[in-house]
């Protein structure tokens, strides 16, 4: 099949070079999504049976660009989190010692918060347990007014659908754009992207953090009394690692 298009890089889609060892972020030339241009998953990829219509291409490229931007934002936030931690910015010792219990080098305490969400201090990391009531625009305000620390994890039921964490969504609700702006302002990475956390298939339960190497995912086991899947994760204990101690991990 003859093609009139100029040769391009299979990794980033650029026509300025054609080397496959490109170090740029992977981007499809056809739809703009975060995959190689020759990927079979690309719906906009030219085939022998014909090309997509103009209307179809518009839809494919819009979805691909949103997914690509979500990947770029997650990568940028992760890099920012690493840079911040490299500056050795820590909570003050007085904050760590106040109302703190110590067991096997692990510190945990409850922190009073003016918001309705529960906030806890664990090994110097702030955990914010979020619940945003659905169909209530005012419910998100307490989260937006809160300023995260340098070592923060915000986790819970956000009841929001937005392209940044569900690229395939056709409609948005639950103040998702405001939540995304809040996360971007404080360099928080969304760890749950494109992964259903609700039995209906939506991504409603989210995890935002600025702690490098933190991981989170939706559990596979369903809770019989809840229509949401459990959120599991791993938070590195950098202090313990530097002292050659085992790192606690498990469900958040």
UniProtKB/TrEMBL annotation:
InterPro entries xref list: Endo/exonu/phosph_ase_sf, Endo/exonuclease/phosphatase
SUPFAM superfamilies, A to Z: DNase I-like
Stretch list, region Disordered: 33-53
Domain annotation Endonuclease/exonuclease/phosphatase: ranges: 127-232
GO MF, any single term: catalytic activity
Source organism superkingdom: Eukaryota
Protein name: Putative eka-like protein
């Amino acid at each position: 099949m003859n093609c009139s298009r100029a040769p391009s890089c299979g990794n980033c889609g650029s026509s300025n070079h054609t080397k496959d060892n490109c170090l740029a972020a992977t981007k499809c030339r056809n739809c703009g999504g975060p995959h190689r241009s020759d990927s079979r998953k690309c719906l906009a990829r030219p085939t022998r049976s014909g090309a997509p219509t103009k209307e179809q291409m518009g839809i494919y490229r819009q979805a691909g660009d949103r997914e690509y931007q979500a990947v770029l934002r997650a990568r940028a936030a992760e890099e920012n989190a690493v840079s911040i931690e490299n500056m050795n910015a820590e909570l003050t010792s007085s904050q760590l010692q106040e109302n703190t219990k110590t067991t096997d080098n692990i510190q945990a305490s409850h922190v009073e918060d003016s918001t309705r969400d529960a906030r806890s201090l664990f090994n110097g990391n702030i955990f914010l347990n979020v619940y945003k009531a659905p169909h209530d625009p005012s419910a998100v305000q307490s989260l937006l007014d809160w300023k995260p620390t340098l070592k923060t994890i915000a986790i819970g039921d956000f009841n929001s659908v937005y392209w940044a964490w569900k690229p395939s969504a056709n409609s948005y609700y639950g103040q998702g754009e405001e939540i995304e702006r809040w996360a971007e302002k404080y360099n928080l990475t969304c760890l749950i992207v494109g992964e259903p956390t609700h039995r209906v298939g939506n991504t409603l339960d989210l995890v935002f953090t600025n702690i490098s190497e933190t991981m989170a995912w939706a559990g596979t086991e369903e809770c019989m009394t809840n229509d949401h899947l459990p959120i599991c994760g791993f938070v590195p204990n950098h202090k313990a690692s530097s002292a050659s101690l085992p790192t606690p991990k498990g469900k958040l």
